[in-house]
Design goal:
CATH topology of one domain: Transferase(Phosphotransferase), domain 1
Shape: elongated
Helix content: 40-55%
Largest sheet: 7 strands, mixed
CATH superfamily of one domain: Transferase(Phosphotransferase) domain 1
Number of helices: 41
Structural class: alpha+beta
Radius of gyration: 34 Å
Distance between the termini: 59 Å
CATH architecture of one domain: Orthogonal Bundle
Number of strands: 17
Amino acid sequence: MLGEGGMGEVYRARDTKLGREVALKMLPAEMAVDPERLERFEREAQAVAALNHPNIVTVHSIEQDGDVRFITMELVEGKPLEELVPAGGFDLDAFFAVAVPLADALAAAHGKGITHRDLKPANVMVTDEGRAVKILDFGLAKFQVAEAGASTDSEAATVGMTRAGAVMGTVPYMSPEQIEGRALDHRTDIFSLGVVLHEMLAGERPFRGDSSAAVTSSILRDVPRLVTESRIELPRHLGRIVKRCLEKDPERRYQSALDVRNELEDLEKEVGSAVAQASQTLASAAHGDLAVEPSRPGSATGAAGRFRWARWMIGAAAVSLLGLGVWWSSSARDGDRSGWRGRQALETRSEAGDGRQLIAVLPLRNLGAPEDEFFAAGITEEIITKLATLPGLALVSTANAAASDFELSPSDVGRRLGVDFVLAGSIQWARGGDGGASRVKIRPRLIRVADNVHLWAEGYDRTIEQIFELQAEIAVQVARELGAALGEMDRERFERPPTMNQEAYELYLRGRFAHQATDCGLARANIPILERALELDPAFMEAWALLSRGYAAAVSHCPEHADADGAASRRALERAAALAPASWEVQVARAQYFTQVERDYPLALEALERAAEQITSFEIYFSQGRIYRRQGRWPEALAAFRRATEADPLEPGAIARLAFTHLWMRNYAEAIELSRRTSEISSTFDSPYYRSALAYWLWKGETEQAREVLELMGEDSLLPAAQWYWFWQRVYEQRFEEALAGLARMPDEPAYVVDLHATSTSSLEAWVHELSGERDLARAAWRRARADLEGAVAEFPTDANFRSALAIVYAGLGLADEAVAEAERAMALMPIDRDPYWGQSPLKEAALVYTMIGEHERAFDALDTLLGMSAPVSIPWLELDPRWEPLWGLPRFRELGSNHAPQRGEEPR
């Protein structure tokens, strides 16, 4: 015997004539003796046997031995689906492997006019290899003794059992019309399918109760919670598919199982190809990004009201966020940007290297009001921070998983991150009304990635005053489940609430959520929020540290009051240090202060090292890489960016900067390959494409491969840098009319900074006319550019880039003395020996000025310096760019070529 139920007993048997194992189902005697029902049953069984579908169990024959009637069927070696659904639900791979063939089998049956009427996990077998799904008992549940409409009050069955002698079906999987005894059609199976799909995803049925009566009442009246509300990682459209299957009115359900199959199949393909990433700008909004690029002295890169390149960046980031849910379709439209020519999605692997368990914490999904997103992000970050300080764990950052809203299961995300375990869950802040206590509900789940086993799940419902205790409790429980060492940690520091003032804590979370540095307004957005928090609790160390960082960011982006902001940053840092001088929060704030206010890079690096001793942090490695780059310590920058990518394998900004570092070091093949990896992670990131075009120019001095990559990016990017590279690509190809037309997409400001250079649209127009031999038009454009850039220099006199751009304009107008004076002022403001990263740009622009005015030896001296260090300058590029044509035929140019042979490397695959 294999099993029994209301419709008979099932045996494993051997067909001695054909020598095969079969399943043999003995029919109940009361059914076998009713001639009318037996005839109808045989007719339906013949139809089922004719289905011949790979996901429907095959009926071999209907037999009789005396009074015993039985049916012989294919023997399916495996387990019923009801035994396989894990507590937290299937991951997406396992779900689709069952759901798609299940819907397909129903569609085939409905096409033959057959309605199952008892679809449930017990009637779905999954083979031992997990390779096949088989639906059992087609047509049998339809022919029970009781007619539709019979009373359901007598002999109520236990939930989950088939009821013989009552309304047919299994109570938790019945449709409303089935329960009410109304006329049925194939749409009743679609409702039952929705129940099964919900159970497969959530690990529990959508309608529950302590009795059959309670369950039927729930089916008739309750609207089930969307599966995507309890499992944050599920694609939103999957929640809508299940919801539509579960509509109580058959007219509002899918009208065919084929539609359900098609929807699931399409979504499976989309999910299989999708890893969307948000830009670093948006990630920093939720996570208080330490890794802010140190500014140039007197930088205008965030000045409010005049130069809007930062607003272009913000606009592009906003488009990225809006596009996260629909990037699959945009990828197809743009010619398969993901992976460059259709490569498979990147598989990464982080390594702890010291025996620690690798864990990623996915963002807690906010089930509360949309305006509470800051709270969900903040609590997630608090739990991450606590776990990151435990000695037995190695945390892989998920900052960008938070922004990208992965359409993958936690185990799939875990595999992509290369971790052993994933912590996922949801959170809801239920504010108390009429004086009632506010409560926080958190439902965390700890998942082992290798086999998708849910090691631990819990539901917490605490008052808001218990939130700090709850954060520590979750972190400790995770560590215990993983066997991580807890004895070495500073338990008092681990469990200490940062503040006892709940309003101050809420303001702190809001301030951290707002902490980003993309322009002056945003850099200062969190300052008043944090100052209000500190009025409520002057002993709130973490808020003082974050306030110091906020003012330091403002120094970079708001040069008009940099001195006042720098002093405020120092005061806040001193207050934080007085409360907890050795804490990693203070060390991080100190690093940002010395980086952006004092520009004392050695002290900043010391602070970052002390912070790294206490906490595993992607931002620390990322910031170290940027500082090393500012110091011209390129091998160390490379190592730091590598550590950053290991700490957050899916952070596109880290891989992009790793690629750019290789480019500066003239490792062009590596730069292009890493840029390709960045594009595989994020379809919304444009820099991998235009930086790869730059690598091809520098490496080979050619335009064909550069154009291929730029075309993958598209010509309509919002980023000025993308349009800048398109402009020069067209110039190098001598497509001058196209280059002029493309200028319409550049910012409408008179002057702006783009990718380490300052320029104006009039300057670019002048170059097109100059290089195409239209001297009068070029001179008119140079005059317009002069007005634009003189205005920029007057407003920002200490900005080296604007002065370099003005020097080129003066050279274009033939004003040699003025051009040299401005070029030298720019180099004095940003000397290359003090800052090799930013300083290369004024030196390169000076070389161009000397070339334009005929001082060729000075141009060669500058180029010799640049070619002898890490910089985006190469002989092939000098031979490609027509602005350097006056140097090409000179003996010293050939000497440069001999002394600085271009690095060839291996051709990228």
